[in-house]
């Protein structure tokens, strides 16, 4: 889910060093990071209120799950556009454009009179979020004090905080009406828009403008393509948990929000703190393969366990998802010699299609079979992701070693080799 930076490959020591200076940042960095929190909140915001939306709009679980499908389908396609736009109008204007779109479409989502309208407005929201999120990291790194390690730590913390607080905000506001979380997000993003307008100066533009097909061309690199395909399978599992589980748990907005808040906290902790230390000790590919297999087992138990077991497994899945998000991002951005924004766009272009597919197919698979089978499919896709890593291990390791950051080489850190 994050768009990380190879500077983090230096391992936990770099993160520890960055943590000391992470609080001493310019106002522009805090404004962008704060808006990033709200942007990531928008992903899980609807989780605890999905059943309420279905009831309020007289819609089925499959129809309501399309809120994720439309959002991420547009996000995936927009990955071909974000670099093209930001390299021409600059990072600041791209951020503001993305924020403005989110404000408009989040507000319109709250006024929806049918599930079709809401799905359409979420698509517009996805376009705005893609423009913002894809640009925010580059802006934070460019404006941050204390080096890129501190900047990346701040960005990852914003991601984790947003993923944790999204369901909580959705529950608190959604308990009164399913419309209020959308209005609340629009208001918070409007505040972010004003803060970035006031505090962020325009960032330097890249020397070379990004073409629309550059991200697709970057996927011609075997290592990057392998990382993207593996992440595609993983994202299907991830978003089966995020979009389908709320219907299986069938809890009140408060209870569902609490469950996904705990899930988000684990995601944040394991993404920012645990994953780098595991990578340092065991190597990235070994950590990724093991984490995918653990996620597969967890999802399988979630599908066949009783209600209490399903709640526990939902929360625990946040740990594996946090580890996977960090390792996949670093792998995608460090495995090829493509510019980081281009590599990230190509990688995200592939993987977000799975985020769009899972919410659509999971309810349909349940209708064709029973409630257990969608989780069996999700477990199988996690295993498929691990198999891609295993089969393509040599290519991934070789390319990662060739293109790891110079400071990591000097420190004697082998990034992806086990």
Notes on the structure:
- Helix 10 runs antiparallel to helix 13 and helix 11 packs antiparallel against helix 12.
- The N terminus and C terminus are likely disordered.
- The chain contains 17 helices and no strands.
- The chain has one domain: MFS general substrate transporter like domains (Growth Hormone, Chain: A), CATH 1.20.1250.
- With 418 residues, the protein is mainly α.
- 80% of the residues lie in helices and 0% in strands.
| Biggest sheet architecture | none
Question: What is the C-alpha radius of gyration, as a whole number of Å?
Answer: 20 Å
Beta-strand content bin = under 5%
Number of domains: 1
In CATH, the homologous superfamily goes by the name MFS general substrate transporter like domains
State the shape: globular
According to DSSP, the number of beta strands is 0
Task: Indicate the CATH architecture.
Answer: Up-down Bundle
Which H/E pattern describes the elements? HHHHHHHHHHHHHHHHH
Helix content: over 70%
Query: Which CATH class is shown?
Result: Mainly Alpha
End-to-end separation in angstroms reads: 24 Å
Residue ranges: pLDDT <50 for 5 or more in a row?
Answer: 1-20, 402-418
Labels describing this entry:
418 residues; mainly alpha; Growth Hormone, Chain: A; 17 helices; 80% helix; 0% strand; globular; disordered C terminus
Q: In summary, what is this structure?
A:
The chain is an all-alpha fold and 418 residues long.
Topology:
Elements: H1 12-21, H2 27-44, H3 50-56, H4 61-89, H5 91-109, H6 115-143, H7 147-174, H8 180-199, H9 214-218, H10 222-249, H11 253-282, H12 284-304, H13 307-334, H14 340-368, H15 373-391, H16 393-403, H17 406-410
Helix pairs in contact: 1-7, 2-6, 2-7, 2-8, 3-4, 4-5, 4-6, 4-14, 5-6, 5-8, 6-7, 7-8, 7-11, 10-13, 10-14, 10-15, 10-16, 11-12, 11-13, 12-13, 12-15, 13-14
